[in-house]
Amino acid sequence: MMASVLSRPNDQSFRRPGGSASRYSRPLSLALIAPLLLLLSIGFLYPIGLLIKLSLFTPELDLSSYRKIIEQPIYLSVMARTFKIALFVTIASFLLGYPVALAMASLKRRLAAAAAAAVFIALWSPVLVRSYAWIVLLQRNGVANNAMTELGMVEAPLKLIYNEGAVIVAMTHVLLPFMILPIFAALRSIPQEYVCAARTLGAGASTAFLRVTLPLSLPGVFAGCVMCFILALGFYITPALVGGPGTLIVATLIGQQATVLLDWPFAAALSTTLLIATLTMVLVFRQAFSISKGFASVD
């Protein structure tokens, strides 16, 4: 009797009129999210506002920092290189991460938990340690060059580090868990009955995957691609260590302008430009994935 009373609360004060018991009233909902909104305003919106103000007013309205970005080709080249590397890293993470997530989703509960634990261990490893590991592997006298030399594949050590290829490989390794986990979660939420129904109606394994599994997993693909792309745009440690001075990206350039040259307005202009470009790319990603019925179904 007591259990039945506790399982069905009669207090109507937290219910919305005409709604279910799981929904709160509007004032209570606003009160619950007020701390989060306050934290978001103080920790994100206010600093972004100061950044934009610093890039525009020094102390009067001045667009010279933005004109400098447009007029000097080197800065546009750095911006283009940053987006190119971020795009390649996102594509590589998807091509490597989707099969891993698909294999994890097909495992039984205990094996899937073990595989997820392995992904989390890679995620929790410090970025600095993983970047130095790639230096050990790819340097002139590193593991990769020594192995190829001993096997007779090359006569002299190759330049495998301090180039864009090394940056893409190292950043893909670091960001791969951010692609695997959202796709894995999306795949695990797909009822197996859908695939079984498609196979029963005559679809082959590849057709069932392309017509059922892949479209329904696009929300996870969207989340993973957005996270990988945005994180790749702001990466600092890995490109600085593995790429060297010849692979300058926007994050490294901003750090140089702010800490070495002390040109804070120009650093703020670069940051604002990168922020606007990132938001634009997120909208493009969303529009591209919203074409799918699988993504539209959760919108």
UniProtKB/TrEMBL annotation:
<feature type="transmembrane region" description="Helical">
    <location>
        <begin position="30"/>
        <end position="52"/>
    </location>
</feature>
<feature type="transmembrane region" description="Helical">
    <location>
        <begin position="264"/>
        <end position="285"/>
    </location>
</feature>
<feature type="region of interest" description="Disordered">
    <location>
        <begin position="1"/>
        <end position="23"/>
    </location>
</feature>
<keyword id="KW-1133">Transmembrane helix</keyword>
<feature type="transmembrane region" description="Helical">
    <location>
        <begin position="166"/>
        <end position="187"/>
    </location>
</feature>
<feature type="domain" description="ABC transmembrane type-1">
    <location>
        <begin position="79"/>
        <end position="285"/>
    </location>
</feature>
<keyword id="KW-0812">Transmembrane</keyword>
<dbReference type="InterPro" id="IPR000515">
    <property type="entry name" value="MetI-like"/>
</dbReference>
<keyword id="KW-0813">Transport</keyword>
<protein>
    <submittedName>
        <fullName>Mannopine transport system permease protein</fullName>
    </submittedName>
</protein>
<comment type="similarity">
    <text>Belongs to the binding-protein-dependent transport system permease family. CysTW subfamily.</text>
</comment>
<keyword id="KW-1003">Cell membrane</keyword>
<dbReference type="InterPro" id="IPR035906">
    <property type="entry name" value="MetI-like_sf"/>
</dbReference>
<feature type="transmembrane region" description="Helical">
    <location>
        <begin position="111"/>
        <end position="135"/>
    </location>
</feature>
<dbReference type="Pfam" id="PF00528">
    <property type="entry name" value="BPD_transp_1"/>
</dbReference>
<feature type="transmembrane region" description="Helical">
    <location>
        <begin position="85"/>
        <end position="104"/>
    </location>
</feature>
<keyword id="KW-0472">Membrane</keyword>
